[in-house]
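User: quick one - fold this with flavin-adenine dinucleotide bound?
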Amino acid sequence: MTIYEKVCKTFYNNPSLSKILVVVAVSGGAGGGLLAYSDSKSYQAENDVFPQLEVVNKKKKVVVLGTGWAGTSFLKNLKNPSYDVHVISPRNYFAFTPLLPSVTCGTVEARSICEPIRKLVNKKDLSVSYWEAECLSIDPERKKVTCRSTQNADLNGKAEFSVDYDYLVIAMGARSNTFNTPGVEENAHFLKEVEDAQKIRQSIIDCFEKAALPTLSEEEKKRILHFVVVGGGPTGVEFAAELHDFVNEDLVKLYPKAKEFVKITLLEATDHILNMFDKRITAFAEDKFHRDGINLQTGSMVVKVTDKDISTKALKNGGVISSMPYGMLVWSTGIGTRPVIMNFMKQIGQTNRRALGTDEWLRVEGTGEIYALGDCATIIQRKVLEDIADIFKKADKDNSGTLTVKEMQDVVDDILERYPQIELYLKNRHMKSITDLMTDAKGDAKKEAVELNIEELRAAFSQVDSQMKNLPATAQVAAQQGTYLADCFNRMEECEKNPEGPIRIRGEGRHRFKPFRYKHFGQFAPLGGEQAAAQLPGDWVSIGHSTQWLWYSVYASKQVSWRTRALVVGDWSRRFIFGRDSSRI
Ligand code: FAD
Ligand code: MG
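Assistant: Sure. Structure tokens for the protein plus flavin-adenine dinucleotide:
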């Protein structure tokens, strides 16, 4: 029996002792930590073998806020057992958001795309605990977060608690953005969470049942069966396409009289839908929607919503304002900042931003050990021109006041790693390396003879920063950031001793880790009627039925567990055979 087990047993067999808080220093069995004893009764209910021994050891405490794409990917990839991990999120499951539009019409069931977080983080070597609560505020000075349980009503004042941390990982995502348009919050459906998708599904059926009642006029039926989608991004477009299929493949068979009254409108403020995609995809999608009878109104901005009408303003033609009656509205115009993130940003002096600014290692600027990833964060890429004097100093090893090609070659890998925009710029200018930029700045001079002073180097790099782009708010980015950060945490000690990052342009030595680098694997846009479009790296475009099959296989393979994979594939098969279910449950 180990010392640990002996201590456990002694306390378990002796109830009087068990009320005393004892701190025992133990070596070996408990990983060299301190053991603090707490009330045994509470433990006996859960586990009858040993009383509860709270390990107050030297493990670093990592608090993770959020169980979405970023948080879950971090937790799934964290393997280093030297952390004590606490997860806090109002959602005790992970949801596969790319299939939410399919949930709105019953193509896929809600439970098929969700996996309990406790199941995902249940690991042999790693201690991970989960609390279902939302973070209310972050105190970076005292290294504490304040939270409130989502079970608020039953807890008689015990719902709020605070948790301290050594490392904080903020992965709270974003909320839907209404741009403060009057009436949207009260009257529109959003499509962000699983509950939203379930509400939309019920609401569609409600509209069809209401319109089937014998007491309604044709005018009222027309209004009730007018479905309006605001936002021509991938989510709005996919929902409009799903809804069109649901109505035409399933609902018209059950509500044959409703067919003549149904109308689907897609409103988009800019000139085209799917702006972030290749023009060929946009053109195909717009064409398909016209053929399908989806009423596509581009250049049309919603300015007000009431319970029965939507007012829009034409962005051309003198800004004419018109209004349309509607039965159901789905609002999908992009994302905004959560209030808790906004307050935190004010606290740390990050104002006028849409998301928490981090450095290239995902560390929140202006804080200590706080990391932010996914939709709630944005990487502030360092500008080359801001650092040009320091780059020059670092590279000019002989302090001659000029930089030779040879001197530049010695630091070129570090510089390319630190400032990825340089590589993009070189690619666009069809140049092979930074030294090409230097020789280019010196006109016809021979490569070996090229020497630049600081002003000439500044001029050579003057356009480089124009290549900087913010990363999109997608699951792909969030998941890659989670994996990257977990990898850094897994190798924290190792890289402390042997740093692997680029040289520090300001200061000495190297950065501990390589900076985060996003790899884009392409993006899909399902367009309904078993057709999809895909834009793959290298501006490869694929459209049609075969792309829809590619979509099926990619989305099946990306599921977080075999259970959800089986459920999703099962739902797709059920839909092929029996169609979608229209019961309002
Ligand atoms: P989320 O996944 O939103 O997770 C945020 C987490 O934080 C949640 O668990 C939430 O409960 C929790 N949280 C919220 N408030 C608090 C709080 N106060 N305290 C603690 N926790 C909190 N991306 C793609 O790449 N491909 C797609 O096909 C795609 N399709 C999409 C379809 C839809 C309908 C939607 C809505 C999004 C889609 N996206 C897609 C985008 C993608 O879902 C997001 O970019 C991704 O979810 C961002 O991950 P995240 O972890 O930052 O945030
Ligand atoms: Mg020199």
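One thing worth noting: Confidence is low (pLDDT under 50) at residues 1-55.
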